[in-house]
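## tool: complex_structure
## caller: assistant
## args:
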Amino acid sequence: MRLAMSASSKSIICYSEEDTELRRGPWSIEEDDLLGNYIANHGEGRWNLLAIRAGLRRTGKSCRLRWLNYLKPDVKRGNLTSEEQLLIFELHSRWGNRWSKIAQQLPGRTDNEIKNYWRTRIQKQARYMKSETQRTTGFVEFFKALQMTRCLHKAQESSPSAMSLQDQEIHMPSNGGFHYSSFGIEATPETQITSQRGVNHLNQHEQNSDSEHNNGSSISNSESVNIQYMTQPLGCTTNQFQALDNYDFGICSYDGYNIDNSAYDMDSFNLAATVDAQNLELPVIGCQISETNSLNMESECSTRSNDELWQFMNI
DNA sequence: AATTTGCCCAACCGCAGTACG
DNA sequence: TCGTACTGCGGTTGGGCAAAT
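## result:
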């Protein structure tokens, strides 16, 4: 067996003992046509057989990948929307590097695409944030807001009928326009979120105690977040979602962001290394549910680093 | 203008799980 | 029950391209 690089197409051609060529590398238009036409006529499956019968000098594996990631009609091309990006962010926080599972929640997007997206854009931003961490607290609010969504998820899981957040908007601090509408969670007018005012402290020990991608919530529901279901609409009610007292806020334990260091260079998200956790006092976040059933979350204290923070959000 | 650097993304690889004879 | 082939998934690689130097 030997390998050679095709000069014209830069495809690697693999010669076996029988001198049957196995093409590798980029697919040509002709190959795409062959594969597409064959699947149109015969359907998917049995990829090795398909490759042979379609007259493709490719492995079944290669054919499958080409079909699923590129040729399949419902594959969506182009940049990810902001909603999709945020959804990826959220789902990754829940499931870690389960790309195929995440992709299932984004119709038309492939696991490969999401994986590439995460690897490039997210980690780039993470590196940026890490470099900024020493002089900004903006990321704290950001992660706090993400934790907020997790609170809501938890509440939804515990009482799914009463709490859903679809179509809601969570406005991140100050000048950030932050839409969580694609998170698949939905707010009802009956939803109220309250919390005692206090100061958040990061607790490294507790954070680290959360294993398995930290899927388990670190929230002590009884103490940190109370979610009540009211009988009257909350249209004009401003609910303080303040401080998430005693909340194992878990910047470091926020799923997926520091536990995947082995998979990618996720040091960027290992904020424990860059934050003086014990001395970190988090700003207060106010939580408001408007008449339009949208949940607005606002910071009650301004930060000078919003622009920096929202660079992250405005990927 | 030439070279370097970094980003993006398609494609490949290895492994684990599953189906099937 | 076992071995083999197939399938799917996550991780990695490398080429193309544009921006920076």
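## assistant note: Chain A is about 35% helix and 10% strand. The domain at 2-71 of chain A is CATH 1.10.10.60 (Arc Repressor Mutant, subunit A). Handing back to user.
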